[in-house]
Amino acid sequence: MDATTQNEGRVGPKGLTHRLIEAWALFGGVVILAVVAIQSISVVTGAFGHPLPGDFELTELGVAVGAFAFLPYCQLTGANVTADIFTSGLNRRWQAVLVFFSAIIALVFSAVMAWRTWIGAQDQFSYDYQTAILQIPIGYAFVPIVISLILVAVAAVVTLAESYQDIAHPSRNVYH
Asked: CA of 51: how far to CAs of 56, 62, 130, in Å?
């Protein structure tokens, strides 16, 4: 089921959550496109002996922010890496049970990661860590990463609720 089909009929807080997470993933895509543009400009200007200063720094920060921005969408749409070869033969209820437990794991993992990453961001700011060439405070990259992890937790709550409904009512399955 594609994301468009999944979002049909979702209104209220659940629909708002889906739209917010989709917008955040699009933000991640824009960041990755900006990284591609920076690298392209650096290659072209480098061919003339004037590469873009700090291109590797911008790439490191941008790829980290962009990759984390995709995680909530992956959690929400079930697009995370899975071992379908082992679970495809299971009935819908058992598949929902597996999704339920994976959502619990995602919720706990993302909550702990958001907490620890926020502490890491505070350390980055307090020690004034900066990139070597452009002198960009590294802590700035941590902020959207923490937001992404919080959104993963929110997405995990949504998938937890949906999978619980599928366990209770297997005929109303949103996964297949």
From this structure: 11, 18, 21
Closest CA relative to residue 64, chosen from 136, 2, 16: 136
Please enumerate in sequence order all residues whose Cβ is within 8 A of that of 98, keeping only pairs 6 or more positions apart, or say none.
87, 90
Structure tokens, 82: 């899975």
At residue 5, the pLDDT reads 45
Residue listed under structure tokens 């366990």: 167
The token duo for 155 is: 């997405």
* Secondary structure (3-state) at 176: coil
Residue with tokens 């917008």: 23
Based on the number of CB atoms within 10 Å of its own CB, is 128 exposed (0-12), middle (13-18) or buried (19 or more)?
exposed
8 Å CB contact between 98 and 87: yes
Show Cβ contacts of residue 142 under 8 Å, excluding neighbours closer than 6 positions: 117, 118, 120, 121, 124
Q: How many residues does the chain have?
A: 176
CA dist 164 and 99 (Å) reads 9
Residues of the chain with confidence (pLDDT) below 70: 1-11, 83, 170-176
| pLDDT recorded at residue 87 | 77
Query: Which pTM was predicted?
Result: 0.87
